[in-house]
Amino acid sequence: MTSYKTRQSSYGDPTGCMQGTRVKVLEELDTWASNANSSKIYWMVGMAGIGKSTIAHTFCENLEAKNILGGSFFASRASEKTRNARLIIPVIAHALARASPRIKVEVVKAIEDDPTLAEPTYININEQFKRLIYNPLRTTAGEVDKLYKVVVIDAVDECDNLEVVASFIKLVLEWASKIPLKIFLASRDEYRIRNAFGSRGSVRFYLHEIEKDVVENDIRKYVETSLARIKDHDSDEWPLSSEVSGLVERSGTLFIYAATAVRYITNGGQDYKTRLSALVIHGQKSINKFETDIDALYVHVLEKACGGKELHEVAPMRDILSVAIFLRNPLPMAAITSLSLEQNAHLYLSGLTSVIHVPNQPGAVVAPFHA
């Protein structure tokens, strides 16, 4: 569940970057990963919804194609396991062992000496890191691939215990120069994470500082390609260029805005044309200083879901939505149903799938796409 291939996302079905987007960022990451003389640590920083996880996903695919992916850990508040920071070291050790028979011998030997090393409850993460990652890599240095292995760790800010995350970062900064391993981390700019990095040797890349026109071009390509997939064969004049431009403008640098809008339009079925037009028209309304573009998008989606309903029909939807939004950790539908006292929680939320992830699998959690 923590690998990029099996990751869960707070923003819906996880995927990589659409072909032809994020080209410059991915090229820079490729250069960093391939250069033996570059910094051993790369920290990609960005606000929520800007596309960090999507980039990290594609970066993993590119690394695996070159046989230099050492492992991946994609944290997510959508799962108890993937938000447990104490799983990071065991998961990386397991991935490195699978990538190299020589490393596997050393990792297995360490666990045979102390079986508790691989447990997420192991208290001393310094010792855990040293014996499961540092020692095996140090011992096999020169015997395995000469290229550095790269470990990708995404969304560490979504982990429950940021103190453990901070301790892990400090360990990596202290020991990475002595082993053939590079670490890529992506997160929001959380104080404890930033403080752990301090001014020590690492590349720090702020995703939201990319030139706006570069991001806009990527978002435009995403919007045009996505809308082309849903239009009828006889809709040659749709979408209008003005509508696409309006949607791109409202998205700014947030891919999550564009993705939410596309999902909302797609869910409209035969009404996809009117949904796009309504979004653009609604987006042209003035936004006060306390409201962002994505606020306006959510307001529009909620207004559409509640349109034509009586107050007593809207009330249970509001109550269930409140439960889903204000939970510290997401819960499955059955738990939300019991908390809300509404037997048809799934039915009420089904009209809000543009902004709320409503899973079909039993036990999967309900979560806002943008949190």
TrEMBL record:
Record bears the keyword Iron: no
SUPFAM superfamilies in the record: P-loop containing nucleoside triphosphate hydrolases (SSF52540)
UniProt keyword annotations, A-Z: Repeat
Residues of the Nephrocystin 3-like N-terminal domain: 27-188
Keyword NAD in annotation: no
Domain of life: Eukaryota
Short name of any one Pfam family annotated for the protein: NPHP3_N
Coiled coil: none
Stored InterPro entries: NPHP3-like_N (IPR056884), P-loop_NTPase (IPR027417)
Annotated protein name in UniProt: Nephrocystin 3-like N-terminal domain-containing protein
